[in-house]
Structures are given as C-alpha cells and as structure tokens.
Amino acid sequence: MRRLMTVLSLALMLTGGAMAQESEVRIAVALEPPALDPTAGAAEAIDIVVYQNVFEGLTRIDETGSVQPGLATNWTISQDGLTYTFTLAEGVTFHDGSTFDAEDVKFTFDRILAEDSVNAQKALYEPIESVTVLDPQTVEITLDQPRGDFLFNIGRGDAVIVAPESADNNASVPIGTGPFAFVQWDRGSRVILERYDSYWGEAPALTRATYVFISDTATLINALLAGDVDGTNNMAAEAIAVFEDNPQFKVLVGTTEGEVVLSTNNRIAPFNDLRVRQAMAHAIDREALIEGVTYGYSQPIGSHFAPHHPYYVDLTGTYPHDPERARELLAEAGLADGFSATLKLPPVAYARLSGQILASQFAEVGIKLELINLEWAQWLEDVFTNHDFDLSIVAHVEPFDIGIYADPDYYFGYDNPEFQALIETLNATTDDAERKELASQAQTILAQDAVNGYLFELAQTGVWNARLDGMWQNSPIEGVVLRDIHWVE
Amino acid sequence: MHQVKVVGYLNPATCTVLHPPPCGEGEGGGGRTIRLPMILFLIRRFLGFAVTLFIAAAVIFFLLDLLPGDPARFILGINASAEAVANLRTQLGLDAPPLTRFFAWVGGMLTGDFGTSVTQRAPVAALIGERLWVSLPLALMAMVLSVAIGLPLGIAAARRRGSLIDTGLMVLAQLGIAIPNFWFGMLLALLFAVVLRWLPPGGFTPWQENPLAAFTSLVLPSLALALPQAAILARVMRTALVEVTGQDFIRTARAKGMTMGEAVWRHGVRNALLPVVTILGLQFAFLVAGVIIVENVFYLPGLGRLIFTAISERDLVLVRGITIVLVIGVTFTMLVTDLVYALVDPRLREGGQR
User: Do A35 and B121 touch (CB under 8 A)?
Assistant: First the structure.
C-alpha cells in the first residue's frame, strides 16, 4: 500500500512537472550571440535573444514592421519634423530594481553618439542634435534634419534603453526594462530568461524561456523530434520536409529583412555598362534559383526591398529571364563572345549554392564565372572594405536599408545623383503616403539600373510545437519576440 | 632480446624533444641507453616540455597574425561606420606592433591572464575554464570507455587467435576505425534519444545544477568518441599480445609449469601494455580533434565548440588561448605517457642502478 502511494505521488509529481512546463518554452537558435549587448555589436544572434525580451526601446517594431509605442507611450512631432517630444511610461524599473526615467534615455543616446562609441548603427542616430530631459517622464529629441524613419530607427535593437549603472556589463549580464529578465548564460549552451514580475506593461504568458544554441541541422532535427526543444525560429530549408506532415509540429514560412543580391562592382568594366548589368539580369532564372537554393521557400525580389513591407513594389518583371535578350545586350555592349568574371562567396549556404546555380545560368549567355569561396573575415576585407571583387552574393539583412545605394563609397560603387537626391528627400519626409511613393520610385530606379542582381528574400522557416502560438511568421526586424508566445490546448 | 623487440613497437613519430632515447632507432639496444637517474630523466623531459610550449606559442601567435580580416569589422558588421570600427580596433588593442603584443600575451599567460575575448568581451581564461568542465570529463570518459572496451576485446582476440571470434572482433574493429565519429554520434542520438528516449539528444546540464543529468548528457558523446579509439586499441593490444606470446620468456614461464593463460596474463599482458600506453598518449591528441566535431553534433558547451565559434568569428585572442591550452594538454599528456611508460617498464625506472 505504501509503495502504491509512493508511486502515485511520484506520478503526481511527474505530471505536475509536465504542467508547470506549459508556461515555459525552449527555443533552438542556430547561432550563439558573442555577447548580449545589442547596442555594441551587429550580430543578429544578440537581438534574437534579447530584443524586446530583455531590452526595450522608446518604440518597438511589431510583426508587420510597423512602429508601436514602447517605453515612450506617446509622442508629438513638431511642425518642422525636427523636435520629438516623448512621454515615457510610468512605473518602469530595470531588472536590477533601479527606476527608469528620462535620464536613462539621455544616457543611452549620448552613449551611442559618443566619440568612442562602438554602436554598429551609429550613423542612423547621427541626425540627433540633442537629447533634453524636460522632466523625469518627458524627453525631447531634436534632429538637425527631418528623418522619416526616425521612429523606426529608435525602435531597433541598437537603440534600446540602458541604465548608466549597468550598461558596461550588459555584454555578459544584460539588464533592461523588458518583460523578461536575464537569469543565466551557460556559454556554448543556452541563455535562460525569466518573466520579470515587476514589468510595467502587460505580463507575458510565458514564465521562462530558454534559448538553446544548436548549429548543426541534423542535431537540431533530433532535438526537435526528441522533444528536447519546443521549436526553432529558422530551420534549414532542406529539412522542413521532415516536419511538414508531422501533426506534432507546425511550420511557419515567412520572410525576413534579408535581400539576397548578386552584388556587382559598378566601378569597373564591364559592370559599369548598364547593358551588361541588364544582360546579367536577363540571364537570371529566379525560379530555378529559389527552387535549387531554398527548396522553393523564398520569395523572388526585383529590387532591394522586402516583400512584406507596406512600401514594397513587385519589380521582378523588370528584366524577365530571357537568355536570348541577354546575349543581344552583351553583343550591343561589344561583348558578343561573353566575358569572364570572379564571384566571391562568403561561407553561407545560400551564397555558395546560389553561386553554383548562377554560374550555370550565366554560362548559357556566355558569361563565365570563377567561384571563389571566402571566409567572412576575408570577405569583409576583400569585398566589403577594399572593393576588390567583380561579383559577390550576400544577404543585406538590415531593415529598410535601400539608403545604402545613396552612398557612392559603398562596396557596390553605385553613383547616381538622382537616386541620392531621392533618398535624401525620402529620409526627410515624414508623411507615410509620400514616403511610400518615394520608396517605390527608389525601388524602381534600382531595378531598372540593375545595380545588383536581385535574387530573393531570405525566408524564415520556423518549426514549432503544434501547440505553441504567438510566434512571428515574418521577421521584419531581427529578434525572436517572446511577448505573445503561449501554449494552447 | 625481447627488450629491443618491445621498443620496436613504438611509433618513430613519437620521437620528439620529449622522447629522447630509447625512442629512436640507432641508439643501440633501446632501453639500455638510459642510465641517467630518474631525476635527470624528469628534468630533461620538463625542459623539453617548456621549450616545445614556447615554440608552439610563437607559431600560434604569428601564424594567426598573418590571417587577413579585421576582427573589429567582423563584430560590427557591414553597416557600421569606419569610425566605429576604428574605435573598436583601438579598444581591442589591435593597434600595437606584433612583437609587443606577442610578449604581452606570453607574459600575461605566465601570470594566468590569457587576455580578453574580442567577441565575447570576457576573460579568455574564464571562458576556457568553464568549458573544461565539459571537455575534460568528456575526454576522460571516452578514454576510460575506449580502454574498457578495447583492451578486453584485444586480449580476447589474441587468446583465440585465428578463431571465428578473433576474425569477427577484428572485422568489428576495422569497422570501428572506418566509421567517422560524428556520424556514429548522430546514429546514437537517433536511436537512444529520438526512438528510445533513454538519453538526451544533446545539450548539457551544468554539474552544479544536476550532476546525474550532467553525466547522462556525456554518455552518448563519449561513446561516439570512444568507439574508434577502442577499435584502434583492440587491434594494437591484439597484435602486441600475439607477438609477445611467441617470446622466449613465455615459453620459459610455461616450462616452469604455468598454463598458457597464466603465462599470458602474468607476463604477456604487462609487456604488451608498452605499445598500448604509447598509443593511448597519441590518442589523446586525436580525442581533442574528435571533441571539436562531437561537441558540435551533441551541442555540448565544451572547448571544441568554443574554438570552432572563435575561429569562425575571427576572435584571435580566444583562438590563441584555446590552441595554447590544447598544446599544453597534448604535450603534457606526452610527458605523462613518458612517466607512465617508466612505471610500466621498470627497466626505465631503475635504469640508473643497473
């Protein structure tokens, strides 16, 4: 009898344990963040763990890419678009118990703009002329020129609000104001977050979240199948089939902010000739490429813009796949026999695979590509910094980064005064409808100029336990936001 | 006679600074050349150990310095301004001349300061220290398992030389050597974690949180690591034992009235252990290499995974730190092998008295 009781109580304990788990989630992500301070590094892996979970900005970006109130519950913009007055949320504390107020906001932006700042996106905040504390709950930010994307930029992970007392240690012990507080980081293994009970906003459903770092696809599949993790934000496309017909899992296919482009060195011959670039555009068969590289899970793009964005224009038809036309254009450019070029590829699967498929597509029109595989650090040095390349393939993952084409020193070397003026106007415009019009003009110019080969938008293919809900399908900004994730019956 | 024979099993590749005679050939009579007292024997080996380490440190430092690529640009990504990158370079101390940085690095290490990781912004010594809690037990468990599996199988095969069991075991051993450990690891995970659900498919629970769970998370990885090592050991043990069994002293032992089993057990195994110990020492280096792959398959937070990420993230300070720790580990094992060798072979230990 006593033994029976023991067994029963043990069983109770076990089921109790299982029920307690229903408010916890274990998420597998491919890359471990090198540090946990999103304001001092560009690694996407940092934002995936902490953005909107541990740290919050004045605004936040939602699943559709729109700006929502964050630590600033309200704001007014002056007539000239230069002065933003933010009303801050009340009763907000950092996870170490200290109070959040306007001084922290000022500290955050002063730190970003400081002489010795190592903020990866410092340039985005350079229009800020001054940050003035009006009272503990009100802060005024003045710009030296109107910036239409200012509210978006301050919602990024790079501008989350940090406290002067803890900022220096955020790399290893992140302290923010978000709904989840950092508990521990077992380096090489996992980061554990726990619901912050004094959170000022709506409490999330989850009490605990563990990010587990698994980079190997086969291992990740095993971990999901064995129930060791509850989901992953991005599963390799070739492995999706394993989960598609399994009722225990759901597959969320969405888009990211990663435009995969055939980066073209517009500075040098023959790529400085529009006809050659048009010929290359006509030589690209996006459908075959997407099928071959991502098993059909990605969306084609015709310009440098994310398909999920409200300003997106479909320009994939600008130069349709037409090898005949490509050869004609090459002949017009005096390259009837085609030409040879190098294609420098960074060490990511999408780039290496795309490179091989593009090489065969280009060969059909007489362009012979020599594929050169590089490591990241080498790629950054050769291609990005020294502009020593003909062609490359890389995903540009920053949100709304069409403005990079306005910089003639950027590695593409695209120098078009008309486009530069357009971006300047776009940056200075705050009216949404006008911005949309300007953004579509910008996209069209890039597509017609065939500055780069526009290939596809990197997909986000999440695999989750079928009973989990509230995950983002698209990823308009880097992050795995826990706020809405919950278990359902 | 048998002395020379036994020494002949040693792989000439182990003849390094650390292995003065009786390692190489042409020393005339192998073990007989060591006449130095034990103390001198130790000093020579420790000196060799130190010199090897210094040379290794120089090679590691300057080779990595030649690599192209700017760590600061890597950390800040492609949208960062040149100014921010320059700031970070200064902050990371990458502006000083190489020779200054080399001696600062070596000097720091002598006081236990391995520098600060460029990407993780944490002390390298601490980062390595916490990983050792995974990698060392893993390597040890793999070692123990490979000995526990390999030696008995090798002895069994040698005892029944030419039989079906012998052939079967050696075919298995050949398979064990041929199967890559990462693939074997995945198969193990598939069977024991996904299908049977007896063991976790990977990951690691820290020791202080739950020692038993920590141990169980190392079972599959250490099995995967141990299999090829056990296979090699079994073959070496078998060959050595077979050869020793044919020696005069076994015949003498039998002539004194021992059964074959007794003679092999009392005299044969001990003599056959010499090549086995040498192989074990060498295997440690292979274990370290294997750990890098197996830790990635089982997503264990060990040294292997740390060096893997450090290399791909261009964290040169961290790569240097880990590499030097691994070099220390391997050369130290060589040293220990030498000492164990002296233990197993009393002729070495008592060499000076003869």
Answer: yes
**Residue B37 pLDDT more than 80?**
no
| CB count in 10 Å sphere of residue B103 | 11
Q: What is the ipTM of this complex?
A: 0.70
3-class SS at A235?
coil
For chain B, the average pLDDT equals 79
| Pairing verdict, β A339-345 and A391-396 | parallel
Strand duo A486-487 + A468-469: pairing: antiparallel
| Residue-level pLDDT at B79 | 66
* Residue pair A449/A304 in contact by the 8 Å Cβ criterion: no
- Chain segment A314-336, per-residue pLDDT in tens: 999 999 999 999 999 999 999 99
Looking at the complex, report in whole angstroms how far the Cα of residue A163 sits from the nearest Cα belonging to chain B.
Answer: 19
What is the C-alpha separation between B315 and A102, in angstroms, rounded?
A: 37
Nearest-neighbour CA in chain A from B63: distance (Å): 15
Measure in Å the smallest separation between the Cα of A217 and chain B Cα atoms: 9
Which segments in chain A show pLDDT lower than 50?
1-20
* CA-atom Rg of chain B in angstroms: 24
The tokens describing A449, both together, are 């100029």
Packing angle of the helix pair A274-283, A349-363 (nearest 10 deg): 100
> Is the model more confident about B56 or about B3?
B56
End-to-end Cα, chain A, rounded Å: 35
**Residue among B74, B84, B306 whose CB faces A118 most closely:** B84
Determine whether the interchain pair B76/A42 forms a contact, defined as Cβ–Cβ distance below 8 Å: yes
